[in-house]
What we know:
The protein is mainly α. It is 20% helix and 0% strand.
Amino acid sequence: MSQQPNTAQMEAQMNSEIYxxxxxxxxxxxxxxxxxxxxxxxxxxxxxxxxxxxxxLHVEPTFNMTQTFNPGNSTGPWSGYASxxxxxxxLKNQVFALQRCGRSSYVPQSTSDLYMPxxxxxxxxxxxxxxxxxxKPVFAQCQRMPAYAHQTLFNTPTREETRMAGLKKE
Length: 170
């Protein structure tokens, strides 16, 4: 008899996996939120009214999203963004300043493979099984407006002209 997990065990395992998705894989550097000190009722404050920190700040390594799982929103710690500013600038092509010269932007030569499509030599002789495939049909010329219709602004005959068209024989 095989040991299959029952419903309670499967639910406990699923809950533990969901809970693990809420915890980062390594501790992340916390953001500091320094509150302003009130100076409204102090006259000539000489001493800083903020209290000294009793717990030293633990500095975590630089955040790297390929190595550390961040369950938070789209923004990670500032250290990860600040360390990748140059990479982001290169990806956005913001490295060179706006200027008027030939080297301000890269344009490949006209002989580059960007402009030259690859030439495929067709050495296979293909039998045409559909003879009408590349034939251009020739249509007979037709008169678009009847001769009796008088030329109006939009070339549309009136109701009277349309009614009279049935009575006239050409």
